[in-house]
Amino acid sequence: MYKDLTNKVAVVTGGSKGIGKAICERFGKEKMCVVVNYHSDEEGAQEAVAEIEKNGGKAVAVEADVSTEEGMDRLLKAAIETFGSLDIWVNNAGMETQKPTHELELEDWEKVLKVNLTGVFLGTKTALSYFKTHQIKGNIINMSSVHEQIPWPTFAHYAASKGGVKLFTETVAMEYAPENIRINSIGPGAIKTPINAEKFEDPKEKEILESMIPMERVGKPEEVAAAAAWLASNESSYVTGITLFVDGGMKLYPSFQGGKG
Ligand code: NAD
Predict the structure, then answer these.
(1) What per-residue confidence (pLDDT) applies to 198?
(2) pTM strictly above 0.85
């Protein structure tokens, strides 16, 4: 636990399930005040709120589409009106779909880019505007992926969005470093959440996936949430512009495992 996080106010987008929900719950354990954003799953968001409050934090669930300015404004307003300020903004919401690139509809491309990349831009801009106006040394965390670095055939739009998140994070981290506003990404590997539930249900797919992870297991949302808590805390006070990979070694060319090659 990080003592400096007590009573800090955070917005977490896509907080109703998966990694976002785990981050909300971890922030609850840190006794933080959390705006739990959801898009359609209000029930999941209310579960996160209950869990945060059970652990001594405070929380409110707020509906918003991260790809709209209006939605982002609503989240900021909720933080200020409910908890009086904003210290941390986590751009976690994301989506993926799969298609060979020659069959990928413009609509699919735009949908993924709008949530995964435009959503990160809008959330970051909203938080930065508030931090600048109120001279807050705020903290922004963007949910990227190992696919900001590893190409992923049939997920070109997803990989492009996460590659965009990487350079966006590095650029804004540099831009606002003189004001002590820290901006980092987290790059999860394969984490078991609703986004990939189908893959894990098929034993063959699961085996293939595990063979690509040197630690030979998929990750848990709580393991990503632990990285978010560290990045949000003062324990990472000299860290900005990085991607903290939480991937069991997935990026380490696992096909060379055992001295092959
Ligand atoms: P998930 O599907 O369980 O959760 C995604 C969340 O984003 C949901 O709460 C969903 O409602 C929300 N969301 C989607 N579109 C939205 C919109 N327009 N407005 C507001 N919220 C919206 O997936 P997850 O695995 O928890 O993914 C969370 C993040 O982690 C995503 O950015 C994803 O790309 C990233 N990630 C996940 C994995 C993994 O293996 N699970 C790996 C790498 C990166």
Answers:
(1) 83
(2) yes
